[in-house]
Design a protein that fits this description.
The chain is an alpha+beta fold and 155 residues long. It has 3 helices and 7 strands, in the order E-H-H-E-E-E-E-E-E-H. The N and C termini lie far apart (42 Å). A hairpin with a 5-residue loop joins strand 2 and strand 3. The chain has a domain at 4-34 and 79-153: Alpha-D-Glucose-1,6-Bisphosphate, Chain A, domain 4, CATH 3.30.530.20. The longest helix is centred in the last third of the chain and has 21 residues, at 133-153. The chain has helices at 15-22, 25-31, 133-153, and strands at 4-11, 37-45, 51-58, 72-83, 87-95, 105-114, 117-125.
Length: 155
């Protein structure tokens, strides 16, 4: 069964600036980890067909056991499409021995210019069933809030 989780946010910055933060290694390390996590990019190849590997570490693993280990989620992300400054499409695969996290999740980041900046809409399709919908949507919203703070703070 296909499942889609999503979130959206208006960011007070032009699409080109927001897009830049979606395809820059240091930027992604700063804003992508949701509240309660830190992140480290281990591999980086920012082109269609390239991608990155990110280790997300829970600050308190007792409340949120990881998919890869008790304290981590490791995800390999491929860039399926890079269309500046409108869209980034990623294919994410979690490292896990638990089959409920298996499969490839597609993350589509759509950027639309608005009078106040950029509307960012994130859609995650084919979400593995082991990922709780409410927690996932809260995590996406948290990452979007981090993105807004990161981008707006750099203007």
């Amino acid at each position: 069964m296909r499942r889609t989780d999503s979130a959206r946010r208006i960011i007070a910055a032009p699409p080109a600036i927001v897009y830049g933060a979606l395809v820059d290694r240091e930027s992604i390390e700063a804003w992508l980890p949701p509240d309660g996590m830190s992140g480290r990019v281990e591999r980086w190849d920012p082109r269609p067909g390239g991608g990155f590997r990110m280790v997300l570490t829970y600050l308190d693993a007792a409340d949120s056991p990881g998919k890869t280990s008790a304290a981590t989620d490791v995800v390999d992300v491929g860039f399926a499409a890079l269309m500046p400054p409108e869209r980034v499409v990623q294919r994410a695969v979690f490292e896990s021995d638990d089959p409920s996290y298996a499969g490839t999740m597609t993350m589509t980041w759509n950027l639309t210019a608005t009078g106040g900046g950029t509307e960012v809409t994130v859609s995650a399709t084919d979400v593995p069933p082991g990922i709780d919908r409410a927690a996932h949507e809260a995590g996406i919203a948290s990452s979007l809030a981090n993105l807004a703070s990161y981008v707006e703070g750099s203007l």
